[in-house]
Amino acid sequence: MSPEKTLTEPDRLFQAIPEPVVGLCRRLAGAGKRGWVVGGCVRDSLLGLAAKDWDVATDARPEEVQRIFRRVIPTGIKHGTVTVVLGGVGYEVTTLRGEGEYRDGRHPEAVTFLDDIEEDLARRDFTFNAIALDPLARTIVDPFDGQRDLARGLLRAVGVALERFVEDGLRVLRAARFAAALECEVEASTLRAMAAPEAHRTLAKVSPERVHDEWQKAMKARRPSIAFSLMRSTEVLPLHAPELASLADDVYARGLERIDRCPSDPPLRLAALCLELGDTPTLGADEAEALLRRLRFSNDDRNRILHLVRHQLAEGDAPSSWSDAALRRWLRAVTPSRLDDVVTLAEASREGDAKAEASALGARARAMLAEGVALETRDLAVRGKDLMQALELSPGRHIGELLEALLERVLDEPSLNQAERLIEVARGLRGGAA
């Protein structure tokens, strides 16, 4: 277990709550209602982290909240949530609630509004997410010892773990993601519940878009390998990524080591994991594409990841032995816009001298780019119209083919990239073709 964390002292904890949130709770109190700060903002504040969103739970019903505040957006009023806008900033305000059956594995069929904050906290996923702050009374409501678990670095489900996961299948992935984000251990009964077939059946109902979002968040952790190791050990991975689940243990472990060594860039890290797919880069890209489409990755992310898989620098490659011409051809295939990504993945895949060699390759390639090396026909000192005029050629596909042939010569000998010299080379090529 990781060393125990020191949580934020209560005085500093309440001082961290923004004044508009305190004012919101004060307005509720003025109307005879109560408000508590809840959710991730409480957890993050306890850890001394900057909270992203400030959410409030209240015993006021949604229609009462709408009467108390001037500008209220009914964002999720069916489930008791509205957004109160104060000073141009929106704050989610949710009525205390109990929940009915989760038939779709994600959302309750119905909610019952409550008056007891502890009953509301009992429906939440993990103990460190089931803590509430009363900013007016300056009291902490923590019925499930979430602070203790947070300090100990322990992820524990609220109540009966399997019940929480069967209610909402996405909680299994959230558990893996939080374990990585907070670098904490998963409590034994919670871990068993994550691997239970009943939890997996509920998770199978969750939309690919939500799974995609959890993967993206997990990849932002300092050590995303924690999340993806849990997905494998609890046999969740086959549900969404059979391609990765089929990898041998040592191969998968190598991919996890690589993603931890990559910068915190989710598509880049996923590419680092996908490098292990397939017996060849082409086959690996085919498997990666099936995975990325299944999880609804955007076209931009998918194109970036597939390009990196196809153009990965193989472990046995020794670029220090490459000639300048070979390097220019490699750079053309990789494309300048992807150079840093490819080099970063190569560095993450290697150690010692091999890693230094990958870094040196990047430096050589960047120096070539700084010199204005020609990598595309548009970089040549002549255009198609120049060739047609000088060689008295008619338009057609042969002009593009001739430009490509000239580029091949320039890749071998960059000094040829001068208009007069290229026209002479083109004349010779045409004569040879004749």
Tell me what the structure shows:
This protein is of the alpha+beta class. It is elongated, with a radius of gyration of 29 Å. It contains 24 helices and eleven strands. The strands form three sheets. A seven-stranded mixed β-sheet has the order 3-4-5-2-1-8-9. The chain has helices spanning 10-15, 19-30, 40-46, 62-68, 117-121, 146-152, 161-167, 170-181, 188-194, 197-203, 208-218, 225-233, 237-240, 242-245, 249-261, 266-274, 281-294, 299-310, 324-334, 339-349, 352-370, 384-391, 397-412, 419-433; strands at residues 35-38, 55-58, 72-76, 81-86, 89-95, 97-99, 111-113, 132-134, 139-141, 154-155, 185-186. 54% of the residues lie in helices and 10% in strands. Helix 23 crosses helix 24 (419-433).
Summary, kept brief:
Helix content is 54%, strand content 10%. With 434 residues, it is an alpha+beta fold.
